[in-house]
From TrEMBL:
Native species: Bradyrhizobium zhengyangense
Name assigned to this protein: Nuclear transport factor 2 family protein
Pfam families tied to this protein: SnoaL_2 (PF12680)
Record domain SnoaL-like: where: 14-117
InterPro entries: NTF2-like_dom_sf, SnoaL-like
Amino acid sequence: MGALTKAAQAEALIRRYFQACNDADHQALLDCFTSNAVHYFPPGLPGAPWRGAQAIADGWVWCVKTMGSRWTIEKVLASSDGHEAVIEWTHWKTALGEVLRGDEWYVFNDDVTRIAEIRAYYASPVNKAETVNKLHDFDYEARGYAMAPPSPPPKLS
């Protein structure tokens, strides 16, 4: 089997990142980012943006421990040169009974081995009165999106 294309390499890195998030694997998360990476979020998230691999890893491990967070990747589109990609995702906050859907734009380092930047966009404003935050009248199930978390959150101490 030949080497991965740059686009496939970018997608594999994103999938590795999401697996590290779901596993709450701090070291694996660090390994996905440049040391000075930045993760931007829509307004309202305390402490955002998260600056640096350490802050990003700490943030996602905290989410798993505190909110029972689980994530699924719904769609991936990577540029042919592998330097940028966009995805659709679902964030399952199992301990809160909430679901958030959105998109992220990724920028990678030159050899597409680490994430340098993520810009997150939510599908809709977070409405705490709703258990599932989503686009109005969009049929997620019919389009093949995950309708449940990928697995229970890991037991963390």
